[in-house]
């Protein structure tokens, strides 16, 4: 108890052993090698990463082992040490009841397990027989079963990145960690569902806060910023003087960037799973397809089906989804760049995002068609029109003039619509409008 605590490190251990040897050299013929304490030299003196010997003072263990060896009771100390460490292992492997509540709770739990086995590995390699491989393997099997059971009980899918480092760290010390990697793969789908729920809320917030109006830009800096966020090129728009407007609203670059953030989150989870590039690419593409075809699709459909949505908003949704559909090829390239798996690979999963945006566009067009017919019916019901006139007039009635005026203002909203879809081309709409302007006799 009076011996000063040594801070750690290879040099400190030798000092400790030398001190112990001085105390017993006149009473015992046994050397440090006989006691089982090995002098392990540091292979890389410039290594900056602290090891177990730098963080833990092992001198009490070495001292006791030497003393018991000198007294001829080495086996007694070995049995005592192993018994106590088994008890400590059970405490370390018992997860706190509130572990699942915070990310730090998971980290603390995993760090304790890693720390325990790093210490035992150090003892294994710096002593002769105090612990052996069979003893380590026995503890490791117990740890595997208890750790996997704990992780399945506590929903680790909320923070899988916190546990992915544990098997990687332990693997570096020679421990078999295949079961831990298999467990992480098992929760992959669960984690994907967690991400999808999170991004569902993200998309809802973006769509609810959007003003559904083209983005105005007043200078070159703002223009380049938006182009940097979303892949868009239009030679005609570039030639126009400022101020000018992008055809899409703000939710287009926001949704596009959130899709990329989702892809990054999937990649982060896969980093420490020891998967091949093809497997990582496949996992990311499948998860992204779910994000597009299920999560984002549902969010868009909910906006389109809202009772208070107007024609202007529906038209802007059609325009926005058209541009997002065109951006899918850039998302393909983005995934290819981060996984280094070419899209021409036989087993590469393709993105199905185009169907999501086409379905949303068709749903918006149907809503426009329905709403427009309802408005025309309401106009007919409110109109004060003499349906029983004996003779046709030489010009269109005031009622038809008002109806055409109403339709003109309504069709003005469709100016920037794509030329295909439920309504056909804008030219067809204009032709229909001209036909309605004719007098009954001309018709």
TrEMBL record:
Superkingdom, taxonomy of origin: Eukaryota
Residue spans of biased composition, Polar residues class: 25-34
Skewed-composition ranges (Acidic residues): 39-49
Example GO biological process: vesicle tethering involved in exocytosis
Domain named Exocyst complex subunit EXOC6/Sec15 C-terminal: residues: 179-419
GO cellular component, one term: membrane
InterPro entries found in the cross-reference section: EXOC6/Sec15 (IPR007225), EXOC6/Sec15_C (IPR046361), EXOC6/Sec15_C_dom1 (IPR042045), EXOC6PINT-1/Sec15/Tip20_C_dom2 (IPR042044)
UniProt KW keywords: Exocytosis, Transport
Region (Disordered): 1-51
Family: Belongs to the SEC15 family.
The protein's name: Exocyst complex component 6B
Higher taxonomy: Eukaryota, Metazoa, Chordata, Craniata, Vertebrata
